[in-house]
Amino acid sequence: MLRNRNTKIIATLGPSSSSPSMIHSLFMAGADIFRLNFSHGTHNEQRKKVYHIRQYEKRVGRPIAILGDLQGPKFRIGKFSNSHVILKNGQRFNLDLNNLPGNHNRVFLPHPEIFKSVKPQTNILIDDGKIQLSVNKVSSNQIETEVINGGKISNHKGVNIPKVFIKTSSLTEKDKKDLELCLDLSLDYIALSFIQKPQDIIMLKKIVGKDTAIMSKFEKPLAIERMDEILKHSDAAMVARGDLGVEMPPEEVPIIQKKIVQKCRDFGKPVVVATQMLDSMINSPSPTRAEASDVASAVFDGADCLMLSAETAAGNFPVFSVEIMDRIIRNVENDISYRQLLNSKPVKLEETTSDAISAAASQVVNIVAAKAIFTYTRSGKTAIRAARERPSVPIIGLSPERLTSRQLALVWGVHTIHALEPKSFSGMIENACELSKKEKIVKKGDYVVITAGAPIGITGSTNNLRIAQIN
Description:
Elements: E1 8-13, H1 20-29, E2 33-37, H2 43-60, E3 65-69, E4 75-76, E5 84-87, E6 92-96, E7 106-108, H3 112-115, E8 123-126, E9 131-138, E10 142-149, E11 151-154, E12 158-160, H4 173-184, E13 189-192, H5 198-208, E14 213-218, H6 221-225, H7 227-233, E15 236-240, H8 241-247, H9 253-267, E16 271-274, H10 289-301, E17 305-308, H11 310-313, H12 318-333, H13 336-343, H14 353-368, E18 373-376, H15 381-388, E19 395-399, H16 402-407, E20 414-418, H17 425-438, E21 447-453, E22 462-469
Parallel strand pairs: 1-2, 1-17, 2-3, 3-13, 6-7, 13-14, 14-15, 15-16, 16-17, 18-19, 18-21, 19-20
Antiparallel strand pairs: 4-12, 5-11, 6-10, 8-9, 8-12, 9-10, 21-22
Helix pairs in contact: 1-12, 5-7, 7-9, 10-12, 14-15
């Protein structure tokens, strides 16, 4: 089942979309990857979702990736006596370690690490930035602030502290339990939230091992400042625009998005653009024109994948949301300016045979009018390198490793197939020709380009490129 587009779609599963029939409908509508959001749902519910996906995967005969998204250290205030208060600009308001219900003068903040990290003049944002406080004085158990932007503040609202390093682990106790489940269920990707430094990724990799891929979520300014170091240790990345938009001025977020997408392409790391892409479709069967433009902009940027969150997890129109995102992506990718934009952003190649072969393959398909690039890969790196070039034809990623086949579902332009590895390079060519006919990519007389490594079965040895004509 070859998708007639390159940019992939992630659908988040939740109350609106976790049944076997909904998983089938979402996949047929265009979802390539399913996301489990560990901020919601029980472990038993997550197990059922994975079971249904894997059973469906067997029926459809195509590798499907599953992303486990850890909640991370989300900071929240406590409760108020009357569920909420109204704060006025200029008034004094305290955050403290007293767990009594709050009032118009104070509220419980159950995070001692924040008291150790903030200083006078630090800005504290509450409820996605709707409330802004400025720190006047800090003690071991109280933060005295002045209200800069007031308004209604209610129970358990989230707290953001931009540009301040919070001395806390990126894995909470809840995350550790959720991580155990992710590994037990053999999920393909694990997304780490609220990263502040590359050591957060290094620590997670030690726990996870080499098989499961780690996706770094960029949602804090501190992570943006250390982008290169974080990407170096990551397998994929996500532009998590929700919290990023809270902690940074909104006018900077589109520019940051473009920088992260291009940097990921340079590094050869798949990148996801996420949050509020079709937000109005939670309650409406059609998106706003601004949302359609937002989706199109991410496609023009060259993102590998776009993500639907509440739209599919809890919305009233989960299948419509995927269908419309699919339609927007196809329309953009069929526009001549899309190819012109991709070609105007060359990637920085390494001085390796693998990069040389992948770059050559992208050029060869244009010269001989080939219909597809076939890459044989154990680790997935060959297919990812081919995708970095953003070729004008589909990339067929063939791997004997089921995990690799699933992980490639996230990568731009790659149609992934779990296939046995031929014993010879001539066998690879013959296999590629047969598969291209089976997948209805080609007809007699068409050309395909094949890249692989010799000796066969050695990771990182891509050193062969062949042009084959279909008989």
